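Comment thread on ticket #2218

A.B. wrote:
> Attaching the input chain for the structure job we discussed in standup.
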Amino acid sequence: MILAAGRGERLRPLTDHTPKPLLPVRGKPLVEWHLESLARIGVREVVINLSWLGDRIRAALGDGARWSLRIHYSEEGPVPLETGGGIFRALPLLGAEPFLLVNGDVFTGLDYGAIAPLGDAHAHLVLVPNPPQHPAGDFCLQDGRISDSVGERLTYSGIGRFSPRLFDGCADGRFPLLPLFRRAMAAGRLGGERYDGFWNDVGTVERLQQVDQTP
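C.D. wrote:
> Ran it. Output below, let me know if you need it in another format.
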C-alpha cells in the first residue's frame, strides 16, 4: 500500500493544484519511483488511498499496467482518514496476508524486497538515523524489537511490513497509527530494522528541492 491521501500543507503552494505524490522528483512524479521499486521486487498489486486531488492521482496512474502492476484505489472522501484510518479502510483491498506499506512522500534507495519478514510481529518498521528536522527520533531499536526506552533512538521511515492483525478492534473512521504501534510494542509484537542508505522525507519545499538536486 502507498499512502497518498494527505493534503501536503507544508508543501503549499505546490500542492494547491498538484497532489503531493505527483510532484516531480528527478524527472518524474514521486509516486512513480515507488511503483517502479515495487514492480522490481515482484509486487503485482498495489493499493493507493485517495483524498486530496485524488482524481488527479487516479488519472495519472490509471490501472498500473505501465508498471506491470494492478492498482486498486481506496477512496477516503474529502477529509483524509489519517494514517491508521486510511489503512484500515483499505484492508478489504489488501487481503488477509501481511503487506508492505510505503508513505508516498518519502524518497529512498531502500530495496523493499530486503525488508525482514514479520515473524510473530504485528508490524515491522524500517527505522533511519534521525534527520535534522526530527532530532529526537521516534522509537528505540534493539535486537530487532522496537520500544520506547531500550536501544538506539531512531526515526520511523514511513516504510514497513504490516499484518492486518495490527488493526484488530479498530472501526472505520479517522485515527492515527501511533496508538496501534504502542499497543503492539506493549505486547512485544513491534519489530524493526535500521536502514542507513539514502532516505528523505519530502515534506517541505526545501527538502523536495534537496532531493531533486542530490545526485
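A.B. wrote:
> Thanks. Noting for the ticket: Helices lie at 30-40, 54-61, 82-94, 178-186, 205-213.
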